[in-house]
Amino acid sequence: MSRFTSPSSAAAEFQPLQEQLQGGSTKQQLQAIEELAVAGETGLQILWECLLERRQAAPTVSDGRMIQVIYAADHKPLIQEVERCWPRGRLPMPSAQGIDYHPLQQYLVAQAFEEADRLTLKKLCELAGPTAVQRNWLYFTEVEGFPVEDLLTLDRLWQLYSLGKFGFSQQRQIWLGAGRNWDVLWERIAWKREGRWTRYPGEFIWDLTAPRGHLPLSNQLRGVRAIASLLNHPAWTQETT
């Protein structure tokens, strides 16, 4: 049982938001979350109770956003409850190579997207092996050998805590929609602007105002061949158990 007040006892003014959060579309849920985020203690309690109700379900971007709101509010009792329920984070993080993605999930919860981006590259290098870790970049042949399980974990983490805007699969969808045209992709995800490469790190957008597909910065992997291998990886076209 939660130690906090049930949403059923919340003020009647919040009933429409509760209903929207529990039964609306993803867009409606996210709108309700943002309104509840600024509604003080009652709003945060409603978000927490909703998280509890969805505890057994697969996590969605709405779950990710609710957790971010609780952490951003620095509501220590609720943060303790979240960590008690999900000590390793809301999203399971399977790895075929036993890699620990928990620190990445913590960065994404905190909306520390620049730090999360740097850590993502480190984790990709870990997947490639000690030599890649030492050089801190990847050969395209190393990317081709990445386990499906790990790439899906990385992608789901980025999607869960970005309103579904970020992740390799989002970049792939945009790339395919652009007819596999790299120049069009760079512009659409703001890695290039008016034909000029966006300068790292100061000109990149490290928050949720960034365009869809802006993060993580796969272009930092060194050249088109590496990102081509990533976006063509079997992870995006086959299911895993």
Automatic annotation (TrEMBL):
Residues 8-76 form the GUN4 N-terminal ARM-like repeat domain. It comes from the Bacteria. CDD domains: GUN4. InterPro entries: ARM-type_fold, GUN4-like, GUN4-like_sf, GUN4_N. Coiled coil: none annotated. Residues 95-234 form the GUN4-like domain. SUPFAM superfamilies: ARM repeat, GUN4-like. One of its GO terms (cellular component) is outer membrane-bounded periplasmic space. Pfam families: GUN4 (PF05419), GUN4_N (PF16416). GO terms for molecular function: tetrapyrrole binding. This is GUN4 domain-containing protein. It comes from Halomicronema hongdechloris C2206.
